[in-house]
Amino acid sequence: MFSDKFEHLVNALRILPSVGPKSAQRMALHLIMKQREGAQQLAQALENAIGYIHECQICHSLTEDDVCEICRSHERDERLLCVVESPADVMAIEQSGSYKGKYHVLGGHLSPLDGIGPNEIGIPELIQRLTNGVVQEVIIATNATVEGQATAHYLFEASKHLPISMTRIAQGVPQGGELEYVDSHTLSQALHNRMQIK
Known about the structure:
Helicase, Ruva Protein, domain 3; four-stranded parallel sheet; 13% strand
């Protein structure tokens, strides 16, 4: 449209999730016409992030060091291991401030139709990690999708032989949610995972 470089920028922006051609075009126009300085800062921040951020050697979350701050911490409970699908899940749990154990990031979920099996998301490595005798409880916090549930079930079956307690995060009605707006699967999970009132 305007130039090859502009089209290249639009196509580059389209790699972001939920960004279609029109949204990418609007972003590109905004950066070029109204935020040139911000665009330079964005480019520099992306370059720095790509150059310095990588996977933690232990938990596979994101870090600038070989081992992330959570894995290095002596104040975290090493007996608790929360298994999640992505670093975004680690961030969400950390923001809740309710968990003080360590993590293991799978980097995805099982999806045989897409060719993603246990080896592709490092489940054998996780099972190996669980044999060190330190971890006493694994909290499976995969997403409440069909693939997330299948991954949780596979992890449970693959670690049954280990002397470890396996738990699954409860899923149900969100705080402040009205029942009529909650989908049937979520409501079913909420009823199934009900707790006794004390």
